[in-house]
Amino acid sequence: MKLKLLKKDKTEYEFLISTIKTKTDTWQPNYNNGFILDGTKWYIKLINEKKEYEGTNDFPSNLKEVLSILESAFSKDKK
After folding, report:
1. What does the alpha-carbon distance between residue 54 and residue 42 come to, in Å, rounded to a whole number?
2. Residue 31: what are its φ and ψ, rounded to 5°?
């Protein structure tokens, strides 16, 4: 599935980037819970910030909030 950024003007785009940077600023690069052997893997890469975050069965406390912000900014292209 591809994600397409919904039409945003420069101010909206800059606000989106600033919000994501602020929300992820205290994140660790890796979140892993080795006691759970099946579950969820996730990965977020902020290209302009040269930062990558990932996890297996463990998450930063505000991951759902960040995903919600990203989902509202992108549309899903089922191609």
Report:
1. 5
2. -130, 115
Show pLDDT as tens, one digit a residue, over the chain (79 residues): 556 677 778 888 889 889 999 999 999 999 999 898 888 899 998 888 899 999 999 999 999 999 999 888 876 655 5
Q: Strands, DSSP E only, in the chain? A: 2-5, 30-32, 41-46, 51-56, 74-77
Overall pTM surpassing 0.90 (yes/no) = no
In 3D space, the residue among 78, 77, 24, 79 whose CA is nearest the CA of residue 55 turns out to be 24
